[in-house]
Specification:
468 residues; mainly alpha; Fumarase C, Chain B, domain 1; Fumarase C, Chain A, domain 2; 2 domains; two-stranded antiparallel sheet; two-stranded antiparallel ribbon; 56% helix; 4% strand; elongated
């Protein structure tokens, strides 16, 4: 159908016209292949460090998937080459900066497309080489773009979506991790478990809130430490950072779940323009490439993950404050000579502050491009990058909290429930009890790595398979 359009005289955007503000310019039949090649070349103007390998691989996969839906007017050769590049590890160099989420991620996707036509650069094991060389070494041949194939390769939201999907997975890991580490802190602060009451949470049945309350009940079940202060404790209720974990962690879970629903739609959506409906012999020009649905969802996820760090840091502050914690000042038996976890709390506070700076929504920003034709853009890739940063920072805050909570439990010489005890064991495999000051930087990093690789979650689930 696209081939027929290319041979005809009727103007169809992306096939025989210019692009953006140049859409009114007709392109001669003899120049249609050059039009697509020049489009890819001219749009490959990204700058900055290259995107990580896992993101590039996700971009190739998602781009192949949307083209395979059959509404982009490309040959199967294009889809097959994308898959072959993925399977043979031909990874285009895609610079970080250049997308405003207008017609999707034009600049970064153009860098990926350059390699398909035997141009651009690839990277393997940190070494860059020309795209043509990498294709040849992998036994692949570049393609000459047919009408519309250039615009089909670069129109879409696959970069923001790829980054967002990978970060979403890590955010979901953090949501469960926050419950585990929060339960450790609750035990270290000798908190009550009455705030996790199932009937209480049934009166406000947000799914995330109920899931977190269930997790906390499981994690603190059969804890001798909790049972030891059920009677005779003068405290009526715990501070919000403990008592409101189901409400706060739960709200984050619900926001993350919304982001998952959006991304599940987006990874299987057609985000090209124009879209070809061969069964009806129609080509429809629209705006499916606009990144706003993804941008808003990723902004929401960023706020949600930042809140997990925010409440975690409040628990760290509570545990290290000897005036309110019931524990030795800064979690050290010899305060004064030793500073204990004093400055670990500073680091958590610094990370939370950075998260707050990154939590301003990118999706509310817009600058016109293409001489005003693209007069509203999504900034979706900015939202994606911010989510990645906030996820990393939050993982490190939770690692700090885990070390503090384990130290508090050791100082109490407390026996806890099986779930919390297993979490303490994972911490202690990476960080011994702090009896005398030492640098904790590497140990925080090791704990953050155990969180990222789901070692902590897997260990606790061995004891508590019901953990959500």
């Amino acid at each position: 159908m696209v081939a027929q359009i290319a041979e005809g005289d009727d103007p169809v955007y992306g096939v025989n016209t210019g692009f953006g503000d140049l859409a009114a310019v007709r392109v001669a039949h003899g120049d249609l292949r050059a039009l697509q090649r020049n489009l890819v070349r001219s749009h490959a103007v990204g700058v900055g460090p290259a995107l990580p390998e896992d993101v590039v691989r996700a971009v190739l996969l998602l781009r192949a998937n949307t083209l395979a839906a059959g509404h982009s007017g490309v040959r199967t050769d294009v889809v097959n080459l994308l898959c072959d590049m993925l399977n043979r590890r031909v990874h285009p160099v895609i610079p970080r900066h250049g997308s405003v989420g207008a017609s999707g991620d034009l600049a970064p996707l153009a860098h990926a497309a350059l390699v398909l036509i035997g141009e651009g650069e690839t990277v393997a094991e940190g070494k860059r080489r020309p795209g043509a060389e990498s294709l040849k070494a992998a036994g692949l041949k570049p393609i000459e773009l047919a009408p519309k194939e250039g615009v089909s390769l670069i129109n879409g939201t696959q970069v923001m979506t790829a980054i967002g999907c990978l970060a979403l997975h890590d955010a979901e890991v953090l949501a469960t991790t926050a419950d585990i580490v929060g339960a450790m802190s609750a035990e270290a602060l000798r908190s009550t478990d009455r705030a996790w009451d199932a009937e209480l949470h049934a009166t406000r049945p947000h799914p995330g809130q109920q899931a977190v309350a269930a997790n906390l009940r499981s994690l603190m079940a059969a804890s001798p430490n909790v049972a030891s202060h059920r009677v005779g404790d003068l405290r009526v209720q715990d501070p919000y950072s403990i008592r409101c974990m189901p409400q706060v962690h739960g709200a984050s879970r619900d926001a993350i779940a919304y982001t998952r629903r959006v991304l599940e739609i987006e990874i299987n959506a057609v985000t090209d323009n124009p879209i070809v409906f061969a069964e009806d012999n129609r080509v429809v020009s629209g705006g499916n490439f606009h990144g706003q649905p993804v941008a808003i969802a990723l902004d929401l996820a960023t706020i949600a993950v930042a809140e997990l760090a925010d409440i975690s840091e409040a628990r760290v502050d509570r545990m290290t404050n000897g005036h309110t914690s019931g524990l030795p000042p800064f979690l050290t038996r010899d305060p004064g000579t030793n500073s204990g976890f004093m400055v670990a709390q500073y680091t958590a506070a610094a990370l939370v502050t950075e998260n707050r700076l990154r939590s301003f929504p990118a999706s509310v920003e817009s600058l016109p491009t293409s001489a005003g034709m693209e007069d509203h853009v999504s900034m979706g890739v900015h939202a994606a990058h911010k989510l990645v940063d906030v996820v990393r920072n939050t993982r490190e805050v939770l690692a700090i909290e885990a070390l503090c909570a384990a130290q508090g439990l050791d100082l109490l010489e407390a026996r806890t429930g099986p779930g919390v005890e297993e979490a303490r064991r994972v911490v202690r495999e990476r960080s011994a009890q702090v009896d005398e000051d030492r640098s904790l930087s590497a140990e925080i990093g090791a704990m953050a790595d155990a969180i990222a690789r789901e070692v902590l979650i897997a260990a606790v689930r061995m004891r508590l398979p019901e953990l959500l």
